[in-house]
Specification:
The strands form 2 sheets. A 5-stranded antiparallel sheet has the order 1-4-9-6-7, with no helix packed on it. Strands 2-3-10-5-8 form a 5-stranded antiparallel sheet, with no helix packed on it. By secondary structure, it is mainly beta. It is about 15% helix and about 40% strand. It folds into 2 domains: about 1-30; about 30-185, Jelly Rolls (Sandwich), CATH 2.60.120.260. The N and C termini lie far apart (about 50 Å). It has one helix spanning about 5-25, and strands at about 50-55, 60-65, 75-85, 90-95, 105-115, 120-125, 135-140, 145-155, 165-170, 175-185. The structure holds calcium ion. Calcium ion binds near residues 39, 41, 74 and 76.
């Protein structure tokens, strides 16, 4: 086959492939979860496949563990406990850096339960190094039973695509459990 004939045959094939693939890419609804280990099944904590970590920056008495009792799905859920506030009332449970981009619209979903208290759990998309910019946040009042939370939001144009992740802040002497977390790109509304 000469070169021109080969190109003539390959181009229509390529165009057909584009037609098949483009609606999928444009729609975005089937985009994969940006979070690895979203259901906390890849233990133990601290292993390379875990992809989540506790940041006890304020040096309170805290504990994070996999819990086999009453997970929302699978075998495990994640438990985060603040046993005693020593100084500043905050402990952070954080994802790795996520492939988020400025102006991207995302859907965040997670299941949470905990001991109902006055102080809610804060969930944020945040720049991890200083100046620790919060790009989006919500306050979650804990319920004793598992409850799903769903948020859709456009991320700001100022978002740092290299250093942003998902963070849950416990700011009280309390415990919460987390399972089945997802962050997906969705079409802008
Ligand atoms: Ca699970």
């Amino acid at each position: 086959m000469n070169r021109h004939l080969l190109i003539a045959r390959v181009i229509p094939l390529f165009a057909a492939l584009l037609l098949i693939l483009t609606p999928h890419v444009a729609r975005g609804a089937d985009d994969p979860n940006m979070l690895k280990n979203p259901g906390f099944e890849n233990g133990p904590m601290g292993s390379p496949d875990y992809h989540w970590s506790l940041n006890n920056w304020a040096k309170n008495e805290v504990e994070a563990a996999l819990d086999e009792t009453n997970p929302h799905s699978g075998k495990f859920c994640q438990r985060i406990t603040m046993k005693k506030i020593v100084d500043k009332p905050d402990v952070q449970f954080i994802s790795r850096v996520l492939p988020l981009k400025p102006n991207m619209t995302v859907e965040l979903r997670f299941w949470m339960r905990g001991n109902p208290s006055e102080k809610p759990v804060m969930v944020q998309f945040r720049k991890y190094p200083a100046p620790y910019t919060t790009y989006w946040k919500a306050m979650i009042s804990l319920t004793a039973e598992w409850k799903e939370y769903v948020f859709r939001m456009p991320l700001p144009a100022t978002l740092d695509p290299e250093q942003t992740g998902l963070m849950f802040d416990l700011q009280d002497e309390n415990t919460f459990w987390l399972d089945d977390v997802s962050v997906k790109q969705v079409p802008a509304e």
